[in-house]
Design goal:
This is Precorrin-2/cobalt-factor-2 C20-methyltransferase. This protein has 240 residues and is an alpha/beta fold. It has 7 helices and 10 strands. The protein has a 5-stranded parallel β-sheet with strand order 3-2-4-1-5, with helices on both faces. A 5-stranded mixed β-sheet has the order 6-7-10-8-9, with helices on both faces. α3 packs across α4.
């Protein structure tokens, strides 16, 4: 409870899929229709995120309290603490009035999502807030469909790995799984391609950018991308 008999609102993490507006669950649709406040990742330069675009297809923004949240893209701990604090407090302003808040996120709210940190910090600062999540279709699953490949069958093992410049860690990830989905691959694309060539797997990697969205781009042979720059929302699938 908060204030004079006002029940604290619930914070929902709502996965709205990887980009295709039709890849939203019935429950996610109901949640964004019912919640009086819809929070979404807001781009600093004014463009709309996929999550924002999808939501506006299903609700009238004029009938909702639309809460755009900016998430800091920095590793500076001072800036991170300050900006994340602002984000949590923006949600709390609605929650403490008894309003449910649906935070919409691309993919799934519990898989490499900004909702994870938002929920963790909300629990620390305002533990009285109920928090729940609505699963969504991940870009990982969207990529498998776009490429028409299976991720795992029978006893096969699949890994979902953030691509980094740690060559040995990436080598081990490839060695220990039958299929590997490397997310955030754009920043280390060429080193990843070099590693795959060293391992004799140069022809086993595909790349998808902005999967399932109207802007989707697909390369079945990732070697075509050597020396090129990719969009941030790109992932690589290595299927041995």
């Amino acid at each position: 409870m908060t204030g004079a008999g006002v029940t604290v609102g619930t914070l929902y993490g709502v996965g709205v899929g990887p980009g295709d507006p039709e890849l939203i669950t019935v429950k996610a649709y109901r949640m964004i229709r019912e919640c009086p406040v819809v929070a979404y990742p807001k781009k600093r330069k004014g463009g709309k995120s996929y999550a924002h675009e999808i939501v506006e297809l299903y609700v009238n923004p004029e009938e909702k309290e639309m809460l755009g949240l900016i998430f800091p893209m920095t590793k500076d701990p001072v800036v991170l603490e300050r900006e994340w604090g602002k984000t949590v407090e923006a949600c709390w302003e609605a929650l403490k009035k008894g309003k449910d808040v649906a935070f919409v996120t691309e993919g799934d709210p519990n898989l490499y999502s900004t909702f994870i940190h938002l929920a963790r910090l909300m629990r620390e600062l305002h533990p009285e807030v109920p928090i729940s999540s609505i699963p969504g279709i991940s870009s990982v699953l969207g990529a498998a469909a776009a490429l028409d490949i299976h991720l795992a069958d029978g006893d096969e093992q699949v890994g979902i790995i953030p691509a980094t410049a740690d060559k040995e860690a990436m080598r081990q990830a490839i060695e220990h799984h039958d299929t590997i989905v490397f997310i955030k691959v754009a920043k280390v694309l060429d080193p990843m391609l070099e590693l795959l060539e060293e391992m004799g797997l140069g022809g086993k990697a595909s790349v998808v950018t902005k999967v399932t969205s109207p802007y989707e781009l697909l390369w079945r042979d990732a070697r075509e991308l050597k020396g090129q720059e990719l969009e941030y929302l790109s992932l690589m699938v290595v299927s041995k």
